[in-house]
From TrEMBL:
Source organism per UniProt: Ibidorhyncha struthersii
Start-end of Basic and acidic residues biased regions: 1-17
Coiled-coil ranges per UniProt: none
Chain segments carrying region Disordered: 1-36
GO biological process, one term: centriole-centriole cohesion
Protein name in UniProt: CNTLN protein
Taxonomic lineage: Eukaryota, Metazoa, Chordata, Craniata, Vertebrata
Signal peptide: none
Gene Ontology terms: cellular component: centriole; centrosome
Gene3D superfamilies tied to this protein: 1.20.5.170
Gene name of this polypeptide: Cntln_0
Amino acid sequence: QQEKEDLQGKLKLREHLSQNAGKSEATPAPSKNSDLEMKQLQCKLKNSNNEITKQSTTIKSLKNEVQEKEERVRELQMKISRLERDLNMKRHLIEDLRSRLKANQENEKTSNETLESLERKVKALAEDCSNKKASIDSLKQRLNVATKEKSQYEQMYHKAKDELEKKDLKLNNLESKMIETEYAMTELEATASQQLHGLAKQTGQALETVQKKLLLTNDKVEEFMTFVKALTRELQQSVQELRTKIKQAKKMGEVRTCKKGLSQESVQLAASILNVSTTDLEEILQVEDDEETAKAKMEFEKDEEWLQYIQKLLEAQFPFASSLMDAILQKLNEKKKLVEEYSSLMKHT
């Protein structure tokens, strides 16, 4: 019974689908698949009929035991007969649908041709529509821009109008104030002219005092510069004198050692050979070496660089006291070392 109900439901679905296929002329349904399905359904119905007959024989043998079931079976048989009638009707409908399908397929060919022509027309219309839409969109954008500009100009106009009204009020107030200020200015000019005469006298006197102080400070600065330059020059000269003294002391020591090594007779013999006096021989012995002259040049160049450095410090911007002090202390330390060296040489000699 359950299988029979399932088959009936499937048949109803098929009828519904076939009716829909008949209504829609453009979409043809596959005929072969529907025939196969109908055959399968018929086989299933035959099998169900055979089973029902078997069950009816069993039900007849058990009539005495179950009368209620017999009544149900009768009702079911009535339903089956109705279903068979429905099936017959559906078969007729399927045949009608097949004939309609053939007619629809023939109609489809003509409709396809018309559809192709319509599609072409639709494409042309779609292109026209797209062009028109583009032009409409551009016009809408222009309209939006124009409306925005209009609203901005309206706002600017209202603001300008409000500002003009405010400025008119301010002008009126200013005109009234100007009249008052002109009256006050005349009074102030009179009083200011009197005060300016007095101030001019005071400022003249103050300027004279300031100029005198400036001249004094300039003179002091010049004196300080000359003092620093003289001090540095004196330091340089004293250092150079110490160097020359140290060189002379060293040479005197070397000459004395040579004299100690040489006897008086050998000195006189060397002088007679060279045809010079003994004093000239001592001067010849005291001639400077090339290395000593090069060293003296280097020291002289260093002293000149030191003087130029101090000149740059004096010409530089403030403050320069610490760097100037360092430079002078450096030269003083150098002089101290030379003095110590000279004293030690003089002790030995």
